[in-house]
Amino acid sequence: MTFPTRRATLGALGALPLARAGHAATASWPSEPIRIFVPFAPGGSTDAVARLAAPGLQKRLGVPVIIENRGGAAGSIGTDAAARARPDGHSWLLTFDSHAVMPVLVPNLSFDLEKDLVPVTQIGRAPYVTACQPAKPYRSMADVFAAARKGGVSFGSTGNGTIGHLVMLMMAQRRGVELTHLPYRSGGLAVNDAVAGHVDFMIGSAALLAPHLAANSLRPLMQLGAGRLPALQSVPTAEEDGFPGLSAEAWWGVFGPAGIPAPILSRFHAALVETYREPAIARQFTEINQAELVLGAPDALAGFVREQIRIWGEVARTNRVRPD
Predict the structure, then answer these.
(1) The pLDDT value given to residue 305
(2) So which residues are the signal peptide here (predicted)?
(3) How far apart, in whole angstroms, are the C-alpha atoms of residue 29 and residue 23?
(4) What residues form DSSP beta bridges with 67?
(5) Angle between helices 262-276 and 45-61 (to 10 degrees)
(6) Domain extents in the chain
(7) 3-state secondary structure the chain
(8) Statement: 32-125+251-318 belongs to CATH 1.10.10.10
């Protein structure tokens, strides 16, 4: 018969209070306000997606839900804050598509996307759309590329390394033209300058541009989804406009610091899903913002991000894209 060593026995006994404490913390969660870090400035689609859910989460979880904007360095500042937070379920990250290319944009990251963060759910996705002020002479992207051959055409995006920026690089290369990129700290700032005509055109998610397209303060030129959106039936897709196989979708996902107890992660996931599926919120997200809810399992988000890193990370490396 083999008996446990004294060290093993003492270790097991010492672990009991910790285990009980862990169970108690899980049972009492949440015990303080919940912070959701948004690693971008207010006014963009990521901020809007987070604030859309805050009241419903607060109702379901019974504590205040605080949206904390920490922009800068391609989203790495806010992401670092979430990764370093205590893994007790009171701090989370709601981020955007540039999350997947962050290792390329910021080579000396202080955290590891896969080791220091755990996926919760992909909230949704929306195709990118190009648009310009109606006073501009462009009626299509063909007009934009024709003007670019003469030089001096600028476009705005929500930042270096976003999928919108990267797909514009790909389109310009395929057409053999150069476009001047103007990266903004948030989608709200990019839209403001596009509406004012300070930039020739911009690229942003359908969710970001939808109110301005509906108000005719921006004219849509191309959409980059697999098919035409219900509200943009007269606007061609990239595939239809001579870019076979090309599509680009913005996406929003939720992560937490590694080490969050599985029961807490599961409860927060359930609260998110229930909140975004509320009829009023789902309508806002899908009909008004022209986006699609996903709300999948954590493993699905992990696999999705790995694929995004493979696809868009290569584009960012090839073009030597760096943070704003």
Answers:
(1) 94
(2) 1-24
(3) 10
(4) 36
(5) 110
(6) 32-125+251-318, 127-232
(7) CCCCCHHHHHHHHHHHHHHHHHHHHHHHCCCCCEEEEECCCCCCHHHHHHHHHHHHHHHHHCCCEEEEECCCHHHHHHHHHHHHCCCCCCEEEEECHHHHHHHHHCCCCCCCCCCCEEEEEEEEEEEEEEEECCCCCCCCHHHHHHHHCCCCCEEEECCCCCHHHHHHHHHHHHHCCCCEEEECCCHHHHHHHHHHCCCCEEEEEHHHHHHHHHCCCCEEEEECCCCCCHHHCCCCECCCCCCCCCCCEEEEEEEEECCCCHHHHHHHHHHHHHHHCCHHHHHHHHHHCCCEECCCCHHHHHHHHHHHHHHHHHHHHHCCCCCC
(8) no
At residue 2 the predicted structure's pLDDT band, cuts being 50, 70 and 90, is: very low
When pLDDT is averaged across residues 25-41 and rounded to a whole number, the result is 92
Q: What is the pTM of this model?
A: 0.86
CB of 208 within 8 A of CB of 163? no
Kindly give, in sequence order, each residue whose CB lies less than 8 Å from that of residue 285, ignoring residues fewer than 6 positions away: 49, 52, 124, 207, 276, 291, 293
Q: What is the mean pLDDT of residues 41-54?
A: 92
- The model's pLDDT over 69-112, given as tens digits with 9 standing for 90+, comes to 999 888 999 999 999 999 999 999 999 999 999 988 888 899 99
Mean pLDDT confidence for 253-267: 98
Same fold, 32-125+251-318 and 127-232: yes
Interatomic CA distance for residues 40 and 293, integer angstroms: 21
Distance separating alpha carbons of residues 274 and 265, to the nearest angstrom: 14
Q: Which pLDDT score is estimated for 23?
A: 54
* Confidence at 289, pLDDT banded by 50, 70, 90: confident
Amino acid present at 298: P
- Span of 22-36, 90-104, 277-291 with lowest mean pLDDT: 22-36
What class, spelled out in words, does domain 127-232 have in CATH?
alpha beta
